[in-house]
Amino acid sequence: MIYDKQEELYGKYLAFHDVMLEEYDPMEIAAIMVVQGLSIYKTILSEDDYQKMVNSIYSQKDDVIPLDLDGPEIDLK
User: Which of 38, 43, 49, 53 is the most exposed place for a label (fewest CB within 10 A)?
Assistant: First the structure.
């Protein structure tokens, strides 16, 4: 059940992401997404858990796979 909701949310996000890339610079989109994500974490987590999350994100920075912005849409099924 949780996986289905996450898959649905991710699909909706990708559709939104594709629309935004048609109109805006990827750097601007990424900056807004990072700020919004960190703001959500800052709002819902304790200060200690927020710091753990930020450290976890930073520690995984080398594991990030670049997107193919010109490639086909991602099929989640």
Answer: 43
